[in-house]
Amino acid sequence: MVRLAIVVPCYNEEEALPETVRQLEELIKDLIKRECIASDSFVLYVDDGSRDETWKTIVKFNKEKDYVQGLKLAGNVGHQNALLAGLMSVKEEIDAAISIDADLQDDIAVIEEMVKKYKEGCDIVYGVRSERKTDTFFKRFTAQGFYTLMKYLGAKSVYNHADYRLMSRRAIEGLSQFKERNLFLRGIVPTIGYRSDCVYYARKERMAGESKYPLKKMLAFAFDGITSFSIKPMNFIMGVGVLMIFIAIAVAIYALHSYVTGNVVRGWTTIIWSLWFIGGILMFSLGLVGQYIGKIYIEVKERPRYIIEERILNDK
Questions:
Q1: Which 3-state string (H, E, C) describes the chain?
Q2: Interatomic CA distance for residues 28 and 70, integer angstroms
Q3: What is the C-alpha to C-alpha distance for residues 169 and 123, in angstroms, rounded to an integer?
Q4: CA of 18: how far to CAs of 100, 185, 191, 205, 235, in Å?
Q5: Partners of 165 in the beta sheet?
Q6: pLDDT band for position 40 (50/70/90)?
Q7: Homologous superfamily (CATH) for 4-214+307-312
Q8: How many CB atoms lie within 10 A of CB 196?
Q9: What are the tens digits of pLDDT across the range 135-176?
Q10: What is the crossing angle of helices 232-261 and 267-301, to 10°?
Q11: Separation CA 132–CA 126 (nearest Å)
């Protein structure tokens, strides 16, 4: 029988947690009753340094419910690190773990199908959105553009997959061997290499609280993903630099011709345009290189990705 853990990262989710706990408890009980998973399966809620009553809510439900466990991190380390902390804390206790966000926009009805595919031999089962009708046009357009760009850059990402997935114990062990601090699990997990499959579902509206990924965070997350898995942007800049050399030669020829013909005033526009354009390219290039240097700086310090303050089990 499969001992399953459902890992739920939480950041300021006190409004959503009561309904999340209720739905996941019903699911766990149903799967146990139908002998899909072991009776000692559980849900681990990871408090990522929340500023509201999230941890108190987790403690309360831990005392009241049979399947609720809690993990409190010492500070806010971000969704990816909180998710990793939950997976690493349960990997010795379970056969498989499923990660899902606390807002339950991802359809928990497909968890049974995930477990079924695990029993059939899959170490990783990705939850993939079948459509994006609940997204705004802007979010749908940018998300599709991001996945297309990641594919072009050579990253092994699964189209329309976020962080809703099942991983076997040995897949989590494999994940533990990746030591980078700049985490982008959507790109790391597919590189583990074990047998994988997908289940498809329609994403729902958020039931309570606010999204923890506003535009600014989504853009930063996307940029982290791109720069963590490819050096092609730097190769692109090199190509632009070569192109600019040829443009500079052409501008020089034009400037020389203007000087010989005595029509130097007309070249003023070209020079100004060239200065601004080249200046912009240089600033962009320096910024891009700086992003990579910044990531190297973070990696070489080898600071811990998270610190666990407390874990509460349930021995009922």
A1: CCCEEEEEEECCCCCCHHHHHHHHHHHHHHHHHCCCCCCCCEEEEEECCCCCCHHHHHHHHHHHCCCEEEEEECCCCCHHHHHHHHHHHHCCCCCEEEECCCCCCCCHHHHHHHHHHHHCCCCEEEEEECCCCCCCHHHHHHHHHHHHHHHHCCCCCCCCEEEEEEEEHHHHHHHCCCCCCCCCHHHHHHHCCCCEEEEEECCCCCCCCCCCCCHHHHHHHHHHHHHHHCCHHHHHHHHHHHHHHHHHHHHHHHHHHHHHHCCCCCHHHHHHHHHHHHHHHHHHHHHHHHHHHHHHHHHHHCCCCCCEEEEECCCC
A2: 16
A3: 8
A4: 16, 27, 36, 17, 49
A5: 99, 126
A6: very high
A7: Spore Coat Polysaccharide Biosynthesis Protein SpsA; Chain A (3.90.550.10)
A8: 19
A9: 665 566 666 666 666 666 666 667 778 889 999 999 999 999
A10: 160
A11: 17
**Parallel, antiparallel, or unpaired for β 124-129 and 96-99?**
unpaired
Sign of the alpha-carbon dihedral angle for 127, 130, 136, 140: positive
* Tokens describing residue 188: 């790391």
Instruction: Give dist(CA 157, CA 155) in Å, integer.
Output: 6
Question: Which residues, including other chains, have CB under 8 Å from residue 34's CB and lie 6 or more apart?
Answer: none
Give per-residue pLDDT as tens, 214-240. Answer: 555 555 655 565 556 555 666 676 667
Q: In whole angstroms, give the CA distance from residue 62 to residue 272.
A: 67
CA distances (Å), origin 50, targets 14, 76, 167, 187, 240: 9, 7, 26, 26, 44
pTM: 0.73
